[in-house]
């Protein structure tokens, strides 16, 4: 076996398959594109699904890649096992209806064993296969140097994840030798394919040859796919551990530089304490995932991908605390991740100035959350002790985990310091319930589509001419599909898919909806209404039509686009370009398009940005777009090669892939973008642009919805009508007087509030005079308790100020039921002996709340006003227990 590092292994894998005619597909963004079944790209095949389900036919059916991936279903296992990761790379080779077993198995053997490539000793390799797949067994045993007794039948070797492509698979295992054997020879798991540390799986080859159709459960009954495929996966991290003879994936060049930096930051040594080693591994794994995710445009948040990033960041910070790192430190690891991966992912170092501030802000935010979480944990522990419990409940431990990012181990440590255990079983029940809710919320999304043989086999030509014309006077019907079958003719009343030799109909793409229109005979008879247009696997425009006349292949027809719909959509598409440019001009160049929808009556534009856009900024953006509309800028386009387009200054959509030829749309000198949609011919056609709303759609992604033309005018008219109604309610004649009238009413309200507060303060003072004479004494400590309903926290603190001036007791504890919200305020004149903050935490439990403050003054709020009486009564018991 050769001595190779991670970069060399990745490069050699890709070079080998390129030598076998494969196209090297670059590693795609971790954020899935147009795939609602995935939160993250989680495998090498995930970005190629469109080829395997037949929705797109690739230019080259042989593909190889090394794809960055994230999986989050086993986050808790990271660091505790040798090979669990959240971020990893999956190398693979793929055949889309091209080669199959007879090529895939010999090539795999050649890469692994040939002296020109990996040069692994044949005697160290074993394979498993599906028992009914005897062809695979025979092919392996026919390879030069393969040992016949190194094949193992495995019933589980059938890849099937539901409807769509499926088939048998074969796994390749590497024998690491006796020193890695962790089970006795007679253990049922001690074999290649079992759960053991000696035989390590390094490669999985799936023979995707069957179609799992809806309702089928017996894989022996699955029909053959129209096109058989090869899908393989070789995890880079575990393969590197073999070449570097590492006990786990973490003792390799992919992780050790990060671990060594953490050693310097913590003063601890990796490899000396198993418990601390877990923290080193978690940090090294999580910082890789977070760095790559943020580089690809994901940002921390409270849901979806944002929640995953936030959780990983917080877990890493907590494990840093376990190592004694009290200050933010993850930003110092980002450049190290960048240098490790620079040979294949130079964008990490290039983007580090965008990645580091995001991580720093999140670490700083978590520092504040951590303080609040620790306070809640202290409160939970104290409540359990007060009830003489020996265990902290699982639901409380889970709340700390889910809300504050506390690992269960940290909660257990804190509880142990107080002499308590944690209900692990209850915690796991809550965890499972959350996972079940997540799965239910996701629904039954298909991860792979079922191949459509009719569309995949459709090879007829079709030319789109809609960029320059919206009708075709004479074109032929090249194909008809009815009920997923290609036919020669279709009858009136049927719904069919038609392919024309030439078409002016725009197919839905890039967020722009499809054209509608009509199909007529050459003598003007209506034959069909076009209801939808989509791109087929072989790049023809597939027209879904409702037939009102008979049609047949070869028939010549006339096509016409619905111009009202077409013009409305085109204007809104032009508006998205103007909006995109205005966002970059006003907010900054780091804005990236994250999606769009162009409809007839409105447009929607998603973009990457941290935090809401202020109204002032939105007004600037809106004004700039309307200025460009007023300038009547001409809209032109050219088709050129991608490099020439970049030299022109054209902006590409972030994460989008482009072919050799691209279309560049220019709006005067204001905007140039790569684009394949339809547009107005001049900005003046838009008439008016109005932003309707700005909102967040996920972590780091904002959405603007807007209207143009008549829709914008209608919106202004609606707003005017609402202002007129408001003016009438305010009894003012002019809508221009409404702001002044409202301002006057607000001032009156403020004055009334001040008067009310003054009366409240006076009432509080009167009440205080009586309660100051009602002190009690326990253990030599005098205290006053009182409930004065209707008071705010400020009102109660005013009474405390009077109490301090009069020096009538050591402690005062006041409560108020203020419109159903209980409030507690405690003050101490002897803070060294009794801290107000400790006292208030103890009492807050009674009102189902929490609180804190200084040793001399603290307050709490809660949910249960009925508990106020118990809270005040508990003061005596608290003092008796001192």
UniProtKB/TrEMBL annotation:
EC number of this enzyme: 6.1.1.7
Cell compartment(s), UniProt: Cytoplasm
Coiled coil: 742-769
Any one GO MF annotation of this record: aminoacyl-tRNA deacylase activity
Catalysed conversion reaction: tRNA(Ala) + L-alanine + ATP = L-alanyl-tRNA(Ala) + AMP + diphosphate
SMART domains: tRNA_SAD
Alphabetical list of Pfam families matching this protein: DHHA1 (PF02272), tRNA-synt_2c (PF01411), tRNA_SAD (PF07973)
Highest taxon of the lineage: Bacteria
Transmembrane segments annotated in the record for this chain: none
Keywords: Aminoacyl-tRNA synthetase, ATP-binding, Coiled coil, Cytoplasm, Ligase, Nucleotide-binding, Protein biosynthesis, RNA-binding, tRNA-binding
Main enzyme class: ligase
Alanyl-transfer RNA synthetases family profile domain location: 4-718
One biological process term in Gene Ontology: alanyl-tRNA aminoacylation
GO cellular component, one term: cytosol
Primary localization class, coarse: cytoplasm
UniProt comment concerning the protein's domains: Consists of three domains; the N-terminal catalytic domain, the editing domain and the C-terminal C-Ala domain. The editing domain removes incorrectly charged amino acids, while the C-Ala domain, along with tRNA(Ala), serves as a bridge to cooperatively bring together the editing and aminoacylation centers thus stimulating deacylation of misacylated tRNAs.
Function according to Swiss-Prot or TrEMBL: Catalyzes the attachment of alanine to tRNA(Ala) in a two-step reaction: alanine is first activated by ATP to form Ala-AMP and then transferred to the acceptor end of tRNA(Ala). Also edits incorrectly charged Ser-tRNA(Ala) and Gly-tRNA(Ala) via its editing domain.
Family indicated by similarity: Belongs to the class-II aminoacyl-tRNA synthetase family.
UniProt cross-references to PANTHER family, sorted A to Z: ALANINE--TRNA LIGASE, CYTOPLASMIC (PTHR11777:SF9), ALANYL-TRNA SYNTHETASE (PTHR11777)
Name of the featured protein: Alanine--tRNA ligase
Species in which this protein is naturally found: Oenococcus kitaharae DSM 17330
């Amino acid at each position: 076996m050769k001595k190779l590092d991670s970069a060399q292994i990745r490069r050699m894998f890709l070079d080998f398959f390129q030598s076998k005619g494969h196209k090297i597909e670059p590693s795609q963004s971790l954020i899935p594109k147009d795939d609602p079944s995935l939160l993250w790209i989680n495998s090498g095949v995930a970005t190629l699904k469109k080829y395997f389900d037949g929705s797109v036919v690739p230019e080259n059916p042989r593909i190889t890649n090394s794809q960055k991936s994230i999986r989050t279903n086993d986050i808790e296992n990271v660091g505790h096992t040798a090979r669990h990761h959240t971020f990893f790379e999956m190398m693979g080779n793929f055949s889309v209806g091209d080669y199959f077993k007879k090529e895939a198995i010999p090539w795999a053997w050649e890469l692994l064993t040939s002296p020109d490539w990996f040069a692994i000793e044949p005697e160290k390799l074993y394979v498993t296969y599906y028992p009914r797949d005897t062809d695979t067994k025979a092919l392996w045993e026919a390879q030069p140097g393969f040992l016949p007794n190194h094949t193992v039948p495995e019933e589980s070797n059938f890849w099937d994840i539901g409807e769509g492509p499926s088939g048998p698979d074969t796994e390749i295992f590497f024998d690491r030798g006796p020193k890695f054997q962790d089970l006795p020879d007679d253990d049922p798991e001690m074999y290649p394919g079992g759960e053991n540390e000696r035989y390590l799986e390094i490669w999985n080859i799936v023979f995707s040859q069957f179609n799992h159709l809806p309702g089928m459960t017996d894989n022996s009954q699955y029909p053959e796919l129209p096109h058989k495929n090869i899908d393989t996966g070789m995890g880079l991290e575990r393969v590197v551990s073999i070449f570097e003879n590492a006990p786990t994936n973490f003792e390799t060049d992919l992780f050790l530089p990060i671990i060594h930096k953490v050693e310097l930051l913590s003063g601890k040594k990796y490899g000396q304490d198993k418990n601390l080693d877990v923290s080193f591994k978690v940090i090294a794994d999580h910082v890789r995932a977070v760095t790559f995710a943020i580089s690809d445009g994901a940002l921390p948040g409270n849901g979806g991908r944002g929640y995953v990033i936030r959780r990983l960041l917080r877990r890493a910070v907590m494990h840093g605390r376990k190592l004694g790192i009290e200050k933010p430190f993850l930003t110092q690891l980002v450049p190290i991740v960048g240098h490790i991966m620079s040979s294949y992912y130079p964008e990490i170092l290039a983007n580090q100035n965008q990645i580091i501030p995001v991580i720093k802000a999140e670490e700083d935010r978590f520092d504040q959350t951590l303080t609040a979480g620790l306070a809640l944990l202290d409160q939970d522990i104290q409540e359990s002790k007060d009830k003489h419990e020996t265990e902290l409940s699982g639901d409380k431990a889970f709340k700390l985990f889910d809300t504050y990012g506390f690992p269960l181990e940290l909660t257990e440590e804190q509880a142990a310091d107080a002499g308590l255990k944690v209900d692990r079983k209850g915690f796991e029940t809550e965890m499972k319930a959350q996972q079940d809710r997540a799965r239910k919320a996701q629904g039954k999304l298909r991860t792979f589509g079922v191949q459509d043989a009719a569309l995949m086999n459709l090879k007829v030509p079709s030319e789109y001419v809609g960029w320059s014309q919206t009708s075709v006077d004479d074109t032929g019907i090249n194909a008809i599909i009815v009920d997923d079958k290609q036919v020669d003719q279709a009858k009136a009343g049927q719904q069919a898919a038609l392919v024309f030799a030439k078409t002016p109909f725009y197919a839905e793409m890039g967020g722009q909806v499809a054209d509608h229109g009509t199909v007529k005979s050459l003598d003007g008879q209506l034959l069909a209404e076009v209801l939808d247009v989509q791109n087929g696997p072989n790049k023809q425009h597939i027209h879904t039509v409702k037939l009102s006349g008979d049609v047949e292949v070869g028939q010549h027809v006339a096509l016409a686009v619905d111009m009202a719909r077409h013009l409305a959509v085109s204007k809104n598409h032009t508006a998205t370009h103007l909006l995109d440019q205005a966002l970059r001009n006003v907010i900054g160049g780091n804005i990236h398009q994250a999606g769009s929808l162009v409809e007839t009556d409105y447009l929607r534009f998603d973009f990457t940005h941290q935090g809401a856009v202020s109204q002032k900024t939105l007004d600037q953006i809106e004004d700039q777009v309307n200025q460009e509309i007023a300038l009547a800028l001409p809209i032109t386009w050219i088709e050129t090669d991608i490099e020439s387009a970049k030299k022109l200054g054209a902006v590409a959509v972030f994460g989008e892939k482009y072919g050799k030829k691209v279309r560049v749309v220019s709006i005067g000198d204001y905007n140039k973008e790569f684009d394949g949609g339809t547009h107005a011919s001049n900005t003046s056609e838009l008439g008016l642009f109005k932003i309707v709303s700005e909102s967040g759609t996920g972590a780091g992604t904002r959405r603007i919805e807007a209207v143009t033309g008549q829709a914008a005018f209608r919106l202004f008219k609606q707003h005017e009508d609402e202002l007129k109604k408001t003016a009438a309610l305010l009894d003012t004649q002019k809508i221009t007087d409404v702001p002044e009238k409202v301002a006057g009413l607000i001032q009156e309200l403020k004055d009334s509030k001040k008067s009310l507060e003054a009366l409240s303060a006076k009432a509080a003072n009167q009440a205080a005079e009586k309660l100051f004479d009602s002190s009690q004494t326990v253990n030599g400590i005098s205290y006053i308790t009182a409930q004065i309903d209707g008071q705010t926290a400020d009102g109660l603190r005013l009474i405390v100020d009077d109490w301090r001036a009069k020096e009538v007791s050591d402690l005062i504890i006041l409560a108020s039921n203020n419109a159903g919200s209980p409030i507690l305020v405690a003050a101490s004149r002897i803070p060294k002996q009794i801290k107000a903050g400790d006292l208030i935490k103890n009492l807050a439990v009674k009102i189902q709340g929490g609180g804190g403050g200084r040793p001399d003054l603290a307050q709490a709020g809660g949910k249960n006003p009925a508990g106020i009486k118990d809270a005040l009564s508990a003061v005596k018991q608290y003092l008796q227990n001192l």
